[in-house]
Amino acid sequence: MKNYELELPQGYVEAKTIDAKSDKRIMFLFTLVSGLVTVGAVVVAWLCLGLTANNWMDKLIGDGASYWHNFVFIGAMIAYVILHELTHGVVYKAMTKQKLTFGLTLAVAYCGVPNIYVYRKTALCALLAPFLVFLPIFTVLPFLMTEPIDVLWCALLWGMHVGGCVGDLYCTFLYLTKFRNPLTLLRDTGPKQTFYVPAE
């Protein structure tokens, strides 16, 4: 079976559109869930480290943590956003050989293949690639750290990763529940995904 179509075949109808750039409701929901996941990860790490309102400063700074650690992790956060989108792009490119588009707005970073319609298998591979590649890395990373401040930064990275995959996971959920037909097509412009299904 082909991985994509250059044109929308006859007999297909638009079934659903997710626009993370223009739809303020979607933007708000994705941002809210992403933020809650990120904060939750940091809170769990905070509790696991035994930090309290009285001892957090001594425990974080007093354990020998250096300020350069902060710059390293801030750099890692920026690099992760880029690598996340590049991972989408690598899968799309490998499976379609078509032109990619990348972008960044105040609400979303994105990668897409706007000039084609991809089949379900291709879309699922591209959607899940960053989640599956980076989840083991960010899950193991906190356990390799010796300084509490670094554990918190790693927890922030983990939360940022899982929270940043909210849109990808939501589309995956739709594929697993609503769009199970392998003939389902997706036009992914980056911030906007439109699902098409064969008309009954």
Return Rg in Å.
20 Å
The figure for the number of domains is 1
Strand % is 15-25%
Helix-strand string: EEHHHEEHHHEE
How many distinct helices? 6
* Low-pLDDT regions: none
Q: What general form does the structure show?
A: elongated
**How would you state the average pLDDT, rounded?**
90
* End-to-end gap: 21 Å
How many E strands? 6
Label the structural class: alpha+beta
Tell me roughly what share of residues is in helical segments.
55-70%
Main beta sheet strand tally, sense and closure: 6 strands, antiparallel
Write structural notes for this entry.
With 200 residues, the protein is an alpha+beta fold. Helix content is 57%, strand content 18%. Strands 1, 2, 3, 4, 5 and 6 form a 6-stranded antiparallel β-sheet that branches. It is elongated. The model has no long low-confidence stretch (mean pLDDT 90).
